[in-house]
Specification:
single chain, mainly alpha, three-stranded antiparallel β-sheet, disordered N terminus, 249 residues
């Protein structure tokens, strides 16, 4: 490697990684010298000049700062260009999907929201010789209602649960808000019965009568189950006491 400078000054330097071929490095304060291998001194920050690392210099002197700053600036520009290019590609693709392919995807999603459900057709009628109907299939729809909506009066515990589910934790501490929420639930139940009467073409009084009959049947079943449970518990308690009596004596 060729080092050029004033020939009257000699400074020890370190040059690591030099190849056999001559390289030209301009270093202030160094004499002309051809070297292969390693030269050493201290006081300089390593600088990268092509394929070799140059370390050395005058003690206390500051290394030239123009080269690292320029290299850092170039790397920053390259990194910024790569990031901006990637963002530009993503933005262009998003605009293309939203503007060019947006109508196509909206139509596709709307079509996939439709579901076709085949319903078996009713069987044919059976007619007599005079044309009167002997048998005909008729499609009937069943109506299912939650039992708590059938109760009269409405169960207070269920009302409280429904009211608290609509309130936040802070609002649930206010009795006035809880009572207002209960009134809202009662109003919704009454509105539901009016809507059912209009939908089915049945009088509200008839619906209330049917609901009362169902409520009596459910209460009768519940009373029977609870009675048998109490009797079984009583027999079990008596058996346990009779078994424990001889041991206690």
């Amino acid at each position: 490697m060729l080092l050029s400078g004033r020939p009257d000054e000699r400074y020890p330097v370190t040059l690591s990684g030099a190849r056999n071929e001559a390289q030209r490095v301009i270093l202030s304060g160094a004499r002309h010298e051809r070297s292969e291998g390693s030269l050493e001194c201290g006081g300089w920050t390593p600088l990268w000049f092509g394929p070799c690392t140059l370390v050395g210099g005058v003690a206390g002197s500051e290394p030239p700062s123009f080269f690292p700053d320029a290299m850092l600036a170039n790397r920053t520009r390259i990194l910024g260009f790569v990031c901006c290019s990637a963002l530009a590609v993503i933005w262009a693709r998003a605009c293309y999907l939203g503007m060019a392919l947006g109508p196509f995807y909206r139509v596709t999603l709307r079509d996939t929201a439709l579901r076709v459900r085949p319903i078996p057709a009713p069987r044919g009628r059976i007619l007599a010789a005079d044309g009167s109907e002997l048998a005909v299939d008729r499609c009937d729809a069943d109506l299912a209602v939650h039992y708590r909506y059938l109760e009269r009066p409405l169960d207070d515990g269920w009302l409280t649960t429904q009211a608290l589910a609509r309130l936040s934790r802070r609002q649930a501490r206010d009795p006035a808000r809880v009572e207002a929420a209960k009134q809202d639930v009662r109003g919704e139940v009454a509105a539901m019965w009016r809507a059912l009467a209009e939908l089915t073409g049945t009088d509200e009084a008839e619906l209330a009568r049917r609901g009362a009959a169902i409520q009596r049947r459910v209460e009768r079943i519940a009373a029977s189950v609870n009675r048998r449970r109490r009797e079984r518990r009583t027999r079990q308690t008596a058996a346990d006491e009779s078994t424990a009596a001889p041991g206690g004596e």
